[in-house]
Design brief:
elongated, 3 helices, five-stranded mixed β-barrel, single chain, 235 residues, alpha+beta
Length: 235
Amino acid sequence: MRNFRPSFWLTAAWLPSLVFLIVLGTWQMERRAWKLDLIRDIDARMEQAAVPLPARIDDPAEWRFRKVSVTGTFLHAAEAHRISQPRHGTNGFQVLTPLLRDNGTAVIVDRGWVPKQLKDAGSRAAGQVEGPVTVTGIVRLKGEQTMFVPDNDPAANNWFWVDLAALEARAGVPLQQVYLVQSESPVTWPDAAPPSFSLRNNHLEYAITWYSFAVIMTIIYVLMGLARGRERKAQ
C-alpha cells in the first residue's frame, strides 16, 4: 500500500458515499429485525383461540390479526364485491357483507371468494344465509388507498380496497372500525378459505445489495488510488 495515493476529490466522493451505503444496509437490517418480530407477532395472534369480538373497540391495532367470533345477522342487500386475485385462471371477487349485531352496530365480514359469474347474489342463493349466525375469523384493520390502488366504484359495486366509511354509508348502519376475514363457512359460495397472511421480507437481500455496493466502490477506490500512486512514482 506504499503506492496508495488517492486524490483528494476521489476520497471526497468515496467517503460520504461509503457512509451512505453502510447506513442504508444497516437500516435494512433493522427493518428486517422489525419485520421478523411482526411476523412472529402475527403468527402468535392467529394461533390463539377465538374470543368474542367486543361491541366497542377503542384501540383497533390491539385486535389486528386476532382470531374472534361474532354473532349477528347478515345484511345481504348491502354486500359489496372487492376485486380479488384470480383462482385457477378465473377472475373473482371477495364478498364483503355487514353482519348486524344485537347492539345495532355491524361489522364487515369478508365471507370469501366467488368467481365473476357468481357476482350476482341471486346466482348463489344457497349461500345467502338467513337468521342469526356466529362467524369466526381474523380481525383486519380498515384499508388504506395507496397511489397504486384504483378508486372504488360503489355505483358498480366494484371495490379495490376496504373503505369502511363508504361501506358504512352503503350499509346504512354504524360499522365497527375493523373488519373480519371469515376462516370457514358451511356454504360453498362464498368460499371462505382459512386466512393466510404473508408479509414480504426482502430486507436481507436489500442489505446485502447496499453492503455489496460499498465493498465494490471501496475496491475501485483502492485500485484507483494505487494506480495514481504508481503513476506518480514513475514520474
